[in-house]
Amino acid sequence: MSALSVAAQAAYSRPTPNVLSPRAAEYDLLGRVTRRLSDGWRKRETDLAGLMAAVDENERVWSTLAQEVADPANALPSELRAKLFYLYEFARHHGQLVRQGKASAEILVEINTAVMRGLRGQVPA
């Protein structure tokens, strides 16, 4: 067996890397969009398009989450599902205000951060 075939066999026989759990994937997704919102808000004077793109992305994330929690097969408690759906509605409405220059994106960052803490099990006392 050549060194190349030994290396190939070793590479292909390695176990696949760990796949993120749904909770970890949601956390990572919220983390990315939250960073973009925060950066977009901070740089709004010089990169308004970046802020608008971040607000749009945030709404797409929340829209997807809303579809998930609205599904009757969703295993989350109904009270939590209702709260998450409300947050979607708030994010959608507030995002429109940010686009119109009537509101700050900071509350969207705070909401996402709070949800991320919940996903990590860091619920405030």
From TrEMBL:
Keywords assigned by UniProt, alphabetized: Cell projection, Cilium, Flagellum
| Biological process per Gene Ontology, one example term | bacterial-type flagellum organization
Q: Tell me where on the tree of life, at the top rank, the source sits.
A: Bacteria
**InterPro entries with a match to the protein in the record:** FlaF
Q: What is this protein called?
A: Flagellar biosynthesis regulator FlaF
Q: Whose protein is this, by species? A: Fuscibacter oryzae
Identify the taxonomic lineage of the organism of origin.
Answer: Bacteria, Pseudomonadati, Pseudomonadota, Alphaproteobacteria, Rhodobacterales
